[in-house]
Specification:
Layout: H1 21-29, H2 37-48, H3 58-67, E1 74-75, H4 83-90, E2 97-105, E3 108-115, H5 122-129, E4 134-136, H6 139-146, E5 163-167, E6 176-179, E7 185-189, H7 191-198, E8 201-203
Parallel strand pairs: 2-6, 3-5, 5-8
Antiparallel strand pairs: 1-7, 2-3, 2-4, 6-7
């Protein structure tokens, strides 16, 4: 989460302290003790890994306004298309990532919300919907149904309304993270609020070991 802005000191804003050899050289010339390598490395990491500014996907931004939701959308320079990539970028467990997966049940698109550490049990989905066949949707059906490409599909704000199933396991976490419309953006939300925003029916649809 970006650090909150602070009031600039008297005399105007100051530039952030440089990292690496340049910082050591300047500190040495100024007669000041050089920061410990570990502290300096940590400061550089915090500066370099800050999220990059990027506009929110317009369709998803409109959905947030319509639903009256105020969420923090984070943007990353590198794509976070998979649950593992998203978890690594955010610094959370894969189980705290929400995968928004589109399936076709007897030809009709269905959205499944499930945590990033689990797999969808197609037989459970089939039983829950009373469908004779449930298969994973192809990329064209995903885009036509949701308005987003695979890797950036959010749990709500789609082009068309579909049946939505949310696995009960999502509710085990205080906060979960989901795609915000692009492969570079994510947002955090309390899982029950996310399920409600998606209009999802809670069910047990993940594979059991």
């Amino acid at each position: 989460m970006p650090a909150p802005a602070h009031l600039a000191p008297a005399g105007g804003p100051q530039a952030p302290a440089p990292c690496g050899p340049l910082a050591a050289a300047r500190s040495s010339r100024a007669g000041k003790p050089v920061a410990r390598p570990v502290q300096r490395a940590l400061a550089c990491r915090l500066m370099d890994s800050s999220t990059a500014p990027s506009p929110t996907h317009p369709r998803f931004a409109e959905a947030l306004r319509t639903l009256g939701l105020d969420v923090e959308v984070r943007s990353y320079p590198d794509a976070v298309r998979t649950a593992a990539q998203a978890a690594a970028a955010i610094g959370c467990a894969p189980g705290e990532i929400v995968k928004s997966l589109v399936f076709a049940a007897d030809g009709a698109p269905v959205l499944i919300l499930i945590d990033g550490a689990s797999r969808v049990d197609v037989a459970r989905v089939q039983h829950e919907l009373g469908a004779s066949a449930v298969v994973r949707a192809d990329p064209d059906l995903v885009r036509d149904t949701t308005g987003y490409a695979i890797g950036g599909v959010p749990p709500f704000g789609h082009r068309t309304r579909t049946t939505v199933l949310a696995d009960r396991g999502l509710l085990e976490h205080p906060v979960v993270w989901a795609a915000a419309g692009t492969p570079h953006t994510v947002f955090p939300m309390e899982p029950r609020a996310l399920v409600d925003a998606a209009g999802a029916h809670v069910a047990d649809v993940r594979e059991r070991g």
